[in-house]
Sequence to fold (399 residues):
Amino acid sequence: MPEAFRPCSSWPMPDRDTPGGVTETNFLPYGRQEIGDADVKAVVEALVSGWLTTGPRVSEFERSFATHVGAGEGVAVNSGTAALHCAMRALGIGPGDEVIVPAITFAASANAVLYEGGTPVFADVEPDTLLIDPASAAARITAKTRAIVAVDYAGQPADYDALRALAVPRGIKLIADACHAPGATYRGKATGTLADISCFSFHPVKHLTTCEGGMAVTDDPGMAAHMRRFRNHGIDSDHRSREAAGAHAYDMAELGYNYRLPDVQCALGLAQLRRLSGWVAARQNIARLYDEALAGIAEAVPLRTHPDRTHVHHLYVVRLVEGIDRDHVFARLRAEGIGANVHYAPVYLHSHYARLGYPAGLCPNAEAAARQILTLPMFPAMGEADVRRVVGALTRATA
Fold:
């Protein structure tokens, strides 16, 4: 079996008895990691190295990834959500503070605000990109606004110049939720350079994986030190640093969390990082094939890419035209073995946020888009035949 198609138990697979003849071997998931021999070798070497956690591979992965995305400091943690939480703590978000978040994003972008006692304030999105709309963000700014979270939705950076123009004069901090966008650029600048803190995810469907994991990057050494302490229970040292110093004493300077990313997972991340540029190029080629194949299909319109940005296509999202039942199309695609998905419902429409008092109608563009968007399969091992299969199924489902 070719290395690119090495099976893994975390691949999303349907039930063996799925109607319509769909089986484990012909189901095309919306996303999938690649695990090869180099990854297995790196993990085994870490397992027998004597350091399973807080060892040398953690700092090596931090340095390597931060360099790749253009940042001075990296802080490895056990999820993208943990990276966002670390960012909120490092920026001092707390009760009474408001943080502006786009309505279309994974819930963690807003949940991290709640973890620190802050209040998420939802901004609407651009209807043709689903990126945060700077005009909507501007309308949400109050005297309590402490930060803006820019989500690089699907792999395309938000408009950081416009957001920085809003933030800097008011003393508002900027957080990049770049979990979809390692390797992307905005006006020639890498994603790790666009905000005060940028957060990345290494979930299996992302561009590279550590099984679960994340990274917060920044050019501020003080904030990096704060996040490293926060990920380690708020303790001012770890086992490795105490071992090197021949010391045993430590101080818990604040209430932190156990967000550490073990050496074994960092070893996997280092091995994967070496192939990230190639995987980004593969995703961009698949997106080009989709663009060409969908050019004559009026019923499904791909999201727009701004010409001043490099899109790295974590997701390939189309918007169905008004009048087409998206959920019907979703079901038809799944019946044909196409692992379509939806990213995302507006966060404030989730029941937890409704109980907090967020009403429907806050962000009309986001709510309209959420009824029409559909995520098509996108991962580097896909070929042109896979794209033709997806587009053929989509054409039949929207007819």
